[in-house]
Amino acid sequence: MSAVFDKLDPRTDGTALTSTGEARDFFTLLKPRVMSLVIVTALAGMATAPGTVHPVIGFAALLAIAVGAGASGCLNMWYDADIDALMVRTAKRPIPAGRILPSEALAFGLTLSIGAVLVLGLVANLLAAGMLAFTIFFYAVVYSMWLKRWTPQNIVIGGAAGAFPPMIGEAVVTGGFGIRSLVLFAIIFLWTPPHFWALALVKSADYARAGIPMLPNVAGPASTRRHILAYSLVMAPVAVLPALMGFGGLIYLVVSVVTGLAMIALAVRVLRTTEGDAAHKAAYSLFGFSILYLFLLFAVLLAENSLGLMWALPKVIG
């Protein structure tokens, strides 16, 4: 383990170092865009759970989940600082840019991780806290320290970390989790590979420079494009399940079908467009739309179940 610390030490002569980072740099370590998606997906898990929770407890639990997600992002940036420095997309992050010391980032991430888990255990229940702790461990250790640098399936397996928040949200409300949050887990899990592989198609040179075995660098762009389409074809019908199972309504059905077809159409475009700037534009379009896609699905579920906008459909499954 000492090698993990040593490789990130900017000096070895014992000279004292002073961070030049500002509050916004520490906030950047939390990956705020990822945190925003975690908040929406965890809220959807709470809203669709069969039960209710006191608003104060719900807010405190949601805050703990968001902080836990940010903490795992911070630990990821701490461990990945060496490869981040080699990639154009990440070289300006606070640690490789020299604004935050690795030791500061590690202490910040660990403190937030422990605090978030403890708070969630106190305000909600031990299952929710244990699931949050496991999620942080899975992302920071299993994905960041092992999968990311070892296998081209890093995104597929590591995607589980980003899919846990709805299950944690349901656990906050019910003290357990069931088929509803498992379906939401499946949607995020299946969404993750096409989302990140679309970016990897464009940034393959960056990943190659850093020695990360992303699918385009190992299996090639053509195979990656086929994988993107295959996952999209499975994900789109799975995303309709909440409407068929009764915890998504008419609005959700329309949004999930329309946006799912759009995801498939963009994936087909990526498959067919293989050369030059047009190929990059197609991959970027899919990457950008995929973020909107996931946000819309969970935002609509949240609105239907918490704002009285549910026009229930006949339950087909469950």
UniProtKB/TrEMBL annotation:
Q: Does the keyword Coiled coil apply?
A: no
Give the matching CDD domains.
Answer: PT_UbiA_Cox10 (cd13957)
PROSITE patterns recorded: UBIA
Give the coiled coil ranges: none
According to its UniProt record, the EC number is 2.5.1.141
The cellular location(s) given in this protein's UniProt record come to:
Cell membrane
Q: What is its main location?
A: membrane
Question: Membrane topology per the record?
Answer: Multi-pass membrane protein
UniProt keyword list: Cell membrane, Heme biosynthesis, Membrane, Transferase, Transmembrane, Transmembrane helix
Which InterPro entries does the record cross-reference, listed alphabetically? Protohaem_IX_farnesylTrfase (IPR006369), UbiA_prenyltransferase (IPR000537), UbiA_prenylTrfase_CS (IPR030470), UbiA_sf (IPR044878)
Q: Which domain of life is it from?
A: Bacteria
Q: Which reaction does it catalyse?
A: heme b + (2E,6E)-farnesyl diphosphate + H2O = Fe(II)-heme o + diphosphate
EC class of the enzyme, as a word: transferase
Any single GO BP term = heme O biosynthetic process
The record's Pfam families line, in alphabetical order, gives: UbiA
Cellular component GO terms, alphabetical: plasma membrane
Q: Does the keyword S-adenosyl-L-methionine apply?
A: no
**Which GO MF terms are attached to this record?**
protoheme IX farnesyltransferase activity
- Looking at the UniProt entry, the stretches that span the membrane are 34-53, 59-79, 100-120, 126-146, 228-245, 251-271, 283-303
Q: In which pathway does it act?
A: Porphyrin-containing compound metabolism; heme O biosynthesis; heme O from protoheme: step 1/1
Miscellaneous remark of the record: Carbon 2 of the heme B porphyrin ring is defined according to the Fischer nomenclature.
Task: Briefly state the protein's biological role.
Answer: Converts heme B (protoheme IX) to heme O by substitution of the vinyl group on carbon 2 of heme B porphyrin ring with a hydroxyethyl farnesyl side group.
Give the family from UniProt: Belongs to the UbiA prenyltransferase family. Protoheme IX farnesyltransferase subfamily.
Listed name of the protein: Protoheme IX farnesyltransferase
Q: Which organism is it from?
A: Bosea lathyri
